[in-house]
Amino acid sequence: MALDRMEGLNLKQTVARGELREVEGIPFTEPMCKTWDQVKKFKARPDDLLIATYAKAGTTWTQEIVDMIQQNGDVEKCRRASTYRRHPFLEWFIQESPTDHYSGVELAEAMPSPRTMKTHLPVQLVPPSFWEQNCKVIYMARNAKDNLVSYYHFHRMAKACPEPGTWEEFIEKFMTGKVLWGSWYDHVKGWWKAKDKHRILYLFYEDMKENPKREIQKILKFLEKDMSQELLNKIVHSTSFEIMKENPMANYTTEFRGIMDHSVSPFMRKGAVGDWKNHFTVAQNEKFDEDYKKKMADTSLVFRMEL
């Protein structure tokens, strides 16, 4: 499909919920499995920047911060297009009709350098060219309980994801890694380990919530950029949850209407730390904690479940 067609892609038709299939042991949607070869062979360029996260761990937030830095705080430039066009979602492929589809790879290949892309891939599935080209990667991680809650509500509203089932059922799926993009535990641990051998800036959602200015300064340093305090403050303000929730270029309300039902749950729901307490029962929490201890016993990685 010609790229200009993709530019106008609105995806208003409702997409049917699909089943998950596996690629190298990781659950993907069927369209992603079919186009996996293209993703794997993707040719990164040395000045590419990759934003990596487990799904619903602050991806759009990180993208918006990075874009504001790259555009020197120019809010209008950052609203030039919606997030998924500014930063192609590498492995995502969605077919609306025989002629209309969204392909992260096609969008990225047509982009001039320097490119910024996003992925939810676990580190072992990232196209090898990113490591061969020594690309920079920003990884954002979010505590398991809040990530789980956010992912559950996302499944409820995002029709391209499989049916989440009940809250109880979804907890089980999350704990066993039987969800799109696989195990949260393996994901955060795999990227944590990889930061010792690649150019990866590993950030925490909770730190960003607590002190956005400090964390944005880490990103600036990583991207080798300088910025005045005034501009930095502007970025902190423009990328706050309240502002982004109202930004049609970041909140997914203008496109993907057939895929995301915001009446079920908004794409940007709460953006809070500790919201899991409103969802877990005492019994669910105890079971989760026990399982969490076992799965995280082999890593130095520590998360804060509340602020």
TrEMBL record:
EC number, as in UniProt: 2.8.2.-
Record has Cytoplasm as a keyword: yes
GO terms assigned for molecular function: sulfotransferase activity
Signal peptide annotation: none
Alphabetically ordered keywords of this record: Cytoplasm, Transferase
Principal location listed in the UniProt entry: cytoplasm
Highest taxon above the source species: Eukaryota
Cell compartment(s), UniProt: Cytoplasm
A GO cellular component entry from the record: cytoplasm
Domain Sulfotransferase, chain residue ranges per copy: 46-299
InterPro entries xref list: P-loop_NTPase (IPR027417), Sulfotransferase_dom (IPR000863)
PANTHER family (alphabetical): SULFOTRANSFERASE SULT
Family to which this protein belongs: Belongs to the sulfotransferase 1 family.
Protein name: Sulfotransferase
Upper taxonomic lineage: Eukaryota, Metazoa, Chordata, Craniata, Vertebrata
